[in-house]
């Protein structure tokens, strides 16, 4: 009996050590690969780089895989994400996704109040005259997203405006191109309004 307890104790210790090592692997990868651009907690300080903190797991995993298989295109994808994502299998990508999704996003400073109000109206009601649907229908109340639909709340305004323009091209994965039919109807001013509203959430 004593021998069995010793064996079970040893196995438990090995299991805990393995779990700890896996956690360390994720933290090490974040610290050496991801943090330089996205921040250790996923709250990037550059307005051109997306925040990952609190992002939807389904969306993050889909984007990482799209970088890895090179179906998400663009200059930044070529320069940074293609090579980095090639290093990791699905298991490690899943761990990275879990890590960043569990982080708490930091709030941005509020933008221009008038732009925010106009952006909120577009997000919640759309633009009927242009047949632009309300963003809330897919991105959920509070712009928190769901599944493969990304969280937009608290994202950098400059990054959001850039992505709205990117949707006019074919640089995003096929399933994201449904956005093309929406954003092509938005003026630059309207895109700025929506992004200003979202950054303050």
Please tell me about this protein's structure:
With 201 residues, the chain is mostly helical. It has two domains: 2-40 and 48-101, Orthogonal Bundle (Cytochrome Bc1 Complex, Chain D, domain 2), CATH 1.10.760; 113-199, Cytochrome Bc1 Complex, Chain D, domain 2 (Orthogonal Bundle). Helices cover 57% and strands 0% of the residues. The protein is built from nine helices and no strands. It has helices spanning 2-38, 57-68, 75-85, 90-101, 113-125, 136-139, 157-166, 180-183, 188-199. The chain is globular, with a radius of gyration of 20 Å.
SSE order and pairing:
Blueprint: H1 2-38, H2 57-68, H3 75-85, H4 90-101, H5 113-125, H6 136-139, H7 157-166, H8 180-183, H9 188-199
Helix pairs in contact: 1-4, 2-3, 2-4, 5-9, 7-9
Q: What is the strand tally?
A: 0
| CATH class (first level) name of the largest domain | Mainly Alpha
Q: What's the order of the H and E elements?
A: HHHHHHHHH
Q: What's the overall geometry?
A: globular
Count of helical stretches: 9
Whole-number average pLDDT?
A: 86
Taking all Cα atoms into account, the compactness measure Rg is: 20 Å
CATH 4th-level superfamily of the largest domain: Cytochrome c-like domain
Low-confidence stretches: 3-22
Write down the CATH topology of the largest domain.
Cytochrome Bc1 Complex, Chain D, domain 2
Look at the helices and sheets and give the structural class. mainly alpha
Characteristic key phrases:
201 residues; mainly alpha; Cytochrome Bc1 Complex, Chain D, domain 2; 57% helix; 0% strand; globular
